[in-house]
Amino acid sequence: MDTILSRRGVCGLLLILPMLAPARAEEEAAHIMIDNFVFSPAELKVKTGTKVTWKNEDDIPHTVMAKGGVFRSKPLDTGDEFSYVFAKAGKVDYFCTLHPHMVGSIIVAD
């Protein structure tokens, strides 16, 4: 009987422990708007692990491509979004392949 109680106790403890543990931080998120041939903000500082989402608010298609090719979106029509999670610290410059004068950068810190 003692064995059954201790097993029940252990099972109960295993069910309760996740509730007592500190909640895992949700993924950080940041947004960049594309409008009037501009990325806004043009420079964004984020922590490693942050998901950055670009949203095209312009009335013509745009793309988002990192210099060096770390990421590349498909052409984004009005209202379309593209996201990328920045796993490593450093600076990533990006641009629109359809309009190369459109540039921006993400600065990722630990």
Q: What topology emerges from the helices and strands here?
A:
Blueprint lengths: L1 H19 L8 E7 L2 E3 L2 E5 L2 E7 L8 E2 L14 E6 L3 E6 L7 E7 L1
Parallel strand pairs: 1-4, 3-8
Antiparallel strand pairs: 1-2, 4-6, 5-7, 7-8
Structure, explained:
With 110 residues, this protein is of the alpha/beta class. The protein has one domain (24-109): Immunoglobulin-like, CATH 2.60.40. The protein is 17% helix and 39% strand. It is built from 1 helix and 8 strands, in the order αββββββββ. The strands form 2 sheets. It has a 4-stranded mixed β-sheet, with no helix packed on it. Strands 3-8-7-5 form a 4-stranded mixed β-sheet, with no helix packed on it. The longest helix has 19 residues, at 2-20. The protein is globular.
Strand content is 35-45%
Share of residues in helices: 10-25%
Number of strands: 8
Order of helices and strands: HEEEEEEEE
Q: What is the CATH T-level topology?
A: Immunoglobulin-like
Count of helical stretches = 1
Distance between the termini: 52 Å
Calculate the mean pLDDT score and round it.
86
Q: From the alpha carbons, calculate the radius of gyration and give it in angstroms.
A: 22 Å
In CATH, what is the class? Mainly Beta
Tell me the domain tally. Answer: 1
At CATH's second level, what is the architecture?
A: Sandwich
Biggest sheet character = 4 strands, mixed
Give the overall form. globular
In what order do the strands lie side by side in the largest sheet? 2-1-4-6
Going by CATH, the homologous superfamily would be: Cupredoxins -  blue copper proteins
Unreliable spans: 17-25
